[in-house]
């Protein structure tokens, strides 16, 4: 949360992950992000939780099994990392 407050600025993108969608620190970070004009994306499990209500875009892994959801989140993060590594101009203004 503190890192987000120190470095996040209007127009940045915040990506969060929470299997339950109710992780208190993640919810607090999203509330701060929304109040300060940051775009938000959430990766959640089937229960969705508060995170799904707060984010601009939600990706739901349709399972309540923590391990399966975490594995899917990890796969998505790896794909995003490779996309940025292979296309360094993505996201530049």
Poorly predicted spans: none
Give the helix tally.
4
The helix/strand order is HEHEHEH
Oligomeric nature of the chains: single chain
Shape: globular
Rg, Cα atoms, Å: 14 Å
Separation, N- and C-terminal Cα atoms: 25 Å
In which range does the helix fraction lie? 40-55%
Strand content: 15-25%
Given helix and strand content, the structural type is: alpha/beta
Q: What is the topology, as strand order, of the major beta sheet?
A: 1-2-3
What do you see in this structure?
This protein has 93 residues and is α/β, with parallel strands linked by helices. The chain is 48% helix and 17% strand. It has 4 helices and 3 strands, in the order αβαβαβα. The chain has helices at residues 2-7, 24-35, 49-54, 66-86; strands spanning 13-18, 39-44, 57-60. Strands 1-2-3 form a 3-stranded parallel sheet, sandwiched between helices. The chain is globular, with a radius of gyration of 14 Å. The model has no long low-confidence stretch (mean pLDDT 96).
């Amino acid at each position: 949360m503190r890192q987000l407050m120190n470095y996040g600025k209007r127009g940045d993108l915040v990506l969060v992950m929470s299997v339950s969608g109710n992780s208190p620190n993640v919810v607090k970070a999203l509330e701060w992000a929304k109040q300060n004009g940051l775009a938000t994306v959430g990766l959640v499990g089937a229960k969705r939780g508060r995170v799904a209500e707060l984010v601009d875009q939600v990706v739901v892994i349709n399972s309540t099994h923590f391990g399966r959801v975490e594995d899917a989140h990890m796969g998505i993060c790896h794909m995003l990392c490779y996309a940025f590594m292979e296309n360094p101009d993505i996201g530049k203004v």
